[in-house]
Amino acid sequence: MQINEIQDELIEDFSLFDEWESKYEYIIDMGKQLAPLNEAYKTEENIIKGCQSRVWLHAYIEDDVLKFEADSDAIIVKGLVSMLVKVLSGHKPEEIAQADLYFMERIGLHQHLAQTRSNGLASMVKQMKTYGLAYQSINQ
Amino acid sequence: MSENLNIQQIRADFPILNEVINGKPLVYFDNAATTQKPRQVLDALLGYYEHSNANIHRGIHHLAEKATSEFEATRRRIQEFLNARLSEEIIFTYGTTDSINLVAQTYGRAFLKAGDEVIISTMEHHSNIVPWQMVCEETGAVLRVIPINDEGELLMDEYENMLSERTKFVSVVHVSNALGTINPVAEIIQKAHAVGAKVLIDGAQATAHIDLDVQALDCDFYTFSLHKLYGPTGMGTLYGKKELLDAMPPYRGGGEMIKEVTFEKTTYNELPYKFEAGTPNIADVVAAKAAFDYVDTLGKPHIAAYEHELLTYATDALQDIDGLRIVGQAKQKVSVVSFVMEGIHHQDIGVLLDQQGIAVRTGHHCTQPLMQRFGIAGTTRASFAVYNTTEEIDRLVQGLHKVKKMLG
Ligand SMILES: Cc1ncc(COP(=O)(O)O)c(C=O)c1O
């Protein structure tokens, strides 16, 4: 599936929830389902700055696509991280670098997450795209 | 619930309490970070810009005189509030952080030498750690730290053992922002003076709750921020004993703080202007007077008694929640409850309470060494002000049950 198709699917999933509880229960579930990140990757280098809680992001190339694995010590952030991994992981570096991430706003998460925490997520997105750019130039 | 205060009437003074957050009426429990402002303060702020605005101390026109006299009226009001001996002992700053930096950078740099000791405590806010680390690094003085017990109280024996003729400065917090502990500052000051050390008290969390008398305390410096005292942001106070302020070199250079400037030599203005370079935050200083008036009209003993009821109510109710542990159980506390919940990250608690319209603080509260002392990354903190109610605390408790259910 293309990046935008995955985003649209998430937007549709969220459109079913009309209460904040169901929305957050879904995010929490996503967090719980995220495959655990190997402890070896929970390094100082892989920590995303700007988060109140800690987020680790590990990136690698496999079969010409860029893959992400991530983790957080807070479950809601982990759920949001999990959604970002779901949307971006497994695509070509240039697709990731150029992706227009509109789903967060459409789901209403920007409005629901306080600025400090959004900033953390924003740094994570930025970091993912930076990886995209970096691997894109290596491939060329 | 309060005998001496009409809480509903007080709430009506704070327009922001009518806000609806995520579809629910706001419960504001982040008062230790900053309190909300009553209509009286907002009116004073607007009134200043509408009727008095001018630059102070220099103009000879009507508005300049009016603005100057309102500005100086706040200084005298603070003198009265702290029971300082002289109004020139009251220096306007941008806040507590700014005040502590002023003292560290002027008194510290002028009077500390290699081998001297500066004592702070484990429960200091970063604002009362970093400025001292900076000046210690520059001068070769040594920073020492008073330890605490598991309840979050200073170990006074250890403090006494630390004191010696090498001790030149003691800088401690009056009330801990992260734990709510009220420290025995009178005793701290007296013991420091016995070895000839000077003392600064960080009163950021104390001024809204505790009656103050800097002469009775005999502290050398006392600092606080107006925004934690129902007043405007960007404005604070440094109280200092005149003889010390006189002996200290100036801090920032510029307009207002000078007597005469030539390219060869500048002479400095007298107190308090020596420490107030540039155009100050006139509007907020003027509006701040309304905050002191507001607090004194309610009466600090009445505020303290009511907040103590809230603290007791909240402590009992929160302790009943399975897996919740209160961090900071000092015998003497202001209305701050910091807690951790087993298996739940404080950030998740904050996000889910916010969804329910409840504003709390989560994280390390700018006291990372204190969090390390307790072996935790952070806490969730509910801090109460005079406009909070037990019904709101009930909502917090329900909110936390919901958090547990959702994350369980
Ligand atoms: C104990 C204590 N000291 C210092 C400060 C710093 O105050 P300000 O940010 O107003 O300078 C705070 C504010 O949180 C505090 O709680």
Automatic annotation (TrEMBL), chain A:
This is SufE family protein. InterPro entries: Fe-S_metab-assoc_dom. Residues 11-130 form the Fe-S metabolism associated domain. It comes from the Bacteria. Belongs to the SufE family.
Automatic annotation (TrEMBL), chain B:
One of its GO terms (molecular function) is pyridoxal phosphate binding. It catalyses: (sulfur carrier)-H + L-cysteine = (sulfur carrier)-SH + L-alanine. The keyword Transmembrane helix does not apply. Keywords: Pyridoxal phosphate, Transferase. Pfam families: Aminotran_5. One of its GO terms (biological process) is cysteine metabolic process. Its EC number is 2.8.1.7. Its cofactor is pyridoxal 5'-phosphate. Residues 27-396 form the Aminotransferase class V domain. Gene3D superfamilies: Aspartate Aminotransferase, domain 1, Type I PLP-dependent aspartate aminotransferase-like (Major domain). It comes from the Bacteria. The keyword Transferase applies. PANTHER family: CYSTEINE DESULFURASE, CYSTEINE DESULFURASE 1, CHLOROPLASTIC. Catalyzes the removal of elemental sulfur and selenium atoms from L-cysteine, L-cystine, L-selenocysteine, and L-selenocystine to produce L-alanine. Belongs to the class-V pyridoxal-phosphate-dependent aminotransferase family. Csd subfamily. This is Probable cysteine desulfurase. It comes from Arundinibacter roseus.
